[in-house]
Design goal:
The protein contains 14 helices and 20 strands. By secondary structure, the chain is α/β, with parallel strands linked by helices. The strands form five sheets. The chain has an eight-stranded parallel β-sheet with strand order 11-10-9-5-2-1-13-12. It has a five-stranded antiparallel β-sheet with strand order 14-15-16-20-18. Strands 6-8-7 form a three-stranded antiparallel β-sheet, with no helix packed on it. It starts with 18 loop residues before the first strand and ends with a strand. The structure holds 1-deoxynojirimycin (NOJ) and calcium ion (CA). Calcium ion (CA) binds next to loops.
Amino acid sequence: MPALQSLSLSPADWWNHAVLYQIYPRSFADSNGDGIGDIPGIISKLPHIADLGVDALWLSPFYTSPQKDAGYDVADYCNVDPIFGSLSDAEKLIETAHEYGLRIIVDVVPNHSSDQHPWFQKALAAKPGSRERARYMFREGKGVAGDLPPNNWESVFGGPAWTRVAELDGSPGPWYLHLFDASQPDFEWKNPEVWELFRSVLTFWLDRGVDGFRVDVAHGLIKAEGLPDEEKLHHPPLGNNGPFWDQEGVHAVYQEWRKILESYGPDKMLCAEAWVMPLAKMAHYVRSDEMHQAFNFGYLATSFEAEALRSIINESLAAFGGVGSPSTWVLSNHDVVRHATRLGTDFVSQGQPTGIGPRSPEKPDALLGLRKARAATALMLALPGSAYLYQGEELGLPEVIDIPDDRRKDPTFFRTHGERYGRDGCRVPIPWEAGAPAYGFNTTGESWLPQPQAFAELARDNQVGDPDSTLELYRSLLRFRNQEGLGKGSLVWLDGFSSDVVAFANGSVSVVSNTGEQPTARPDGEVLVTTTALGDEMIPAHTTVWIKTA
Ligand code: NOJ
Ligand code: CA
């Protein structure tokens, strides 16, 4: 475990080769036993994260929020919700993370606020045409009485993207746009006041020492002129389809933000959450005067199949290389079915997905899923560039499928009347200790989402020191990745393997991923890591090995 104060932070362009660990505060560690994770809980577990060998943390929102979308509905961007702690707890977290040598980036949510944000409350209380209303996207309805929504747009979470308000005298008023839940009204980014608000949000957190921001719905801020109907409806409306995604005007926002970050020094970064395909378009967000990186969702959505993997890796290197940047890589986050489950089904995640639940047709194979997930992670962590890990994947946690309907919290479940399960299954609190209440998430046994019994075996304390465990696999991968400089390296494809195999060299490490069912020959050299036990000179099915060649 690293000694406090003894570590120095990595160099200015740290993000280009870093491994960032995503903390979802509600579900990480609960210090006061109310069943919801909090910042003091995170601080108490920092030694474990440093020990894992990652370089940086990304924290999902902990700001003041009624939690209608688990904190992505922000009512005050410059304060901490009491369920998570206080502003001074957040300051202490930033400071302590730095003492452990961990950079820390936080979420900024600029597409929408909570309906409890003072601006939206003032907008509701104000008159049509007022300055207060002009900060959000209010529009008159269609039809003789204005009782039809202004256009046909749908919410990402299901149902219409418009909700009608009543004026103070009770008469029916205009509609407001919400690309997500009705409690998340979209800002009007043509309004300079909105630009000013977010300038002050960025500087507020930069002044408190954060190393950068993950930008929520980065491709959604600007809507097409005139808010035209969507011609072809997509379910859910993701990617760059539709008049609300990836409009050219959005880039000016990040060009300005980049300058704000640069005024704080060369080591501050922005990462785009932009579900935009193809990757060459996503890479526009990473041009030299905009953000520093973007989540590679094309990679996340790729199945564990050699040809598909080779092709998405080539596409990623070309797309981000084309704007002078390394690629990022990611397999899991708080919006998608965990990869230990996803890879055990034929189900391929399409962005914020339908989720998996008790009535789903997908019947994941847990053993196969975990085996493939370990192999997929070992492949990912050998790629040059930076990688994002999601809390719990280092334990091999599966998606929790059997959450009862009455315990679900994701607005997707309610807005689709249960048709889509949504994302609760990847957000279940982390098991730290097999024998403790709530598996060590807290000491009371409370948990905002029910934890399955399978979490006992996967609890962290069961895995520490067990060389076959997923936790020790991640620790080894991260140690050798650092030692061999793989994040800063480059990829050279290796020939001579069967078509089911992904094989490349990165420096003096050969990485061989057998995605097929049949064993394949293993190249000579010292095996640094293998994701399943090696019995002979072969690499078994669904296995990745790292081999030191020189
Ligand atoms: C993307 C976030 O990752 C997701 O959790 C959230 O629901 C939406 N953006 C809306 O903010
Ligand atoms: Ca708590």
